[in-house]
Amino acid sequence: KGTMAFAGKYEFEGDENYDAFVQKIGLSSDKVELGRNCKIVTEVVQNGNDFTWTQHFPGGRTTTNTFTVGKEADMETMGGKKFKATVKMEGGKLVAEFPNYRHTAEISDGKLVEISTSSGVVYKRTSKKIA
């Protein structure tokens, strides 16, 4: 079957192009500082095409998005904005169109690799599996 095993717990390892990306999507400066080198732990529960995707931020804040591949779902951005999106599976990657960026997630060499693209600015975040 064409679905990848995303299930697990992943800890932030590194990112590229953070500042350029958050400026491009208009994140407020307090949130920009909060997110820089942020040891986000991403927890993914996967049951077939059903996902619960939770991000645990230092200091106790969490964001949870629950979605089914191919069905519209209520989502929340890293800046806390609510919106509707349909997550698709393309070549083993989860793909979602956020209001002002395109987000993909894949498992590569056992790591969770997330790429967000906004007007040609590409932000890449890598997390290592911890559970």
Written as H for each helix and E for each strand, in order along the chain, the element string is EHHEEEEEEEEEE
Q: What integer is the average pLDDT?
A: 90
Total tally of structural domains: 1
CATH class placement: Mainly Beta
Terminal CA distance reads 23 Å
Total helical elements = 2
Structural class: mainly beta
Indicate the CATH architecture: Beta Barrel
Please give the structural blueprint.
Elements: E1 8-16, H1 18-24, H2 29-35, E2 41-47, E3 50-56, E4 62-68, E5 72-76, E6 82-86, E7 88-90, E8 93-97, E9 102-108, E10 111-118, E11 121-129
Task: Report on this structure.
The chain has 131 residues and is mainly beta. The chain has a single domain (8-129), classed as Beta Barrel (Lipocalin), CATH 2.40.128.20. Helices cover 11% and strands 55% of the residues. It is built from two helices and eleven strands, in the order E-H-H-E-E-E-E-E-E-E-E-E-E. The chain has helices at residues 18-24, 29-35; strands at residues 8-16, 41-47, 50-56, 62-68, 72-76, 82-86, 88-90, 93-97, 102-108, 111-118, 121-129. The strands form two sheets. It has a nine-stranded antiparallel sheet with strand order 4-3-2-1-11-10-9-8-7. A hairpin with a 2-residue loop joins strand 10 and strand 11. The chain is globular and about 40 Å long. The protein starts with 7 loop residues before the first strand and ends with a strand.
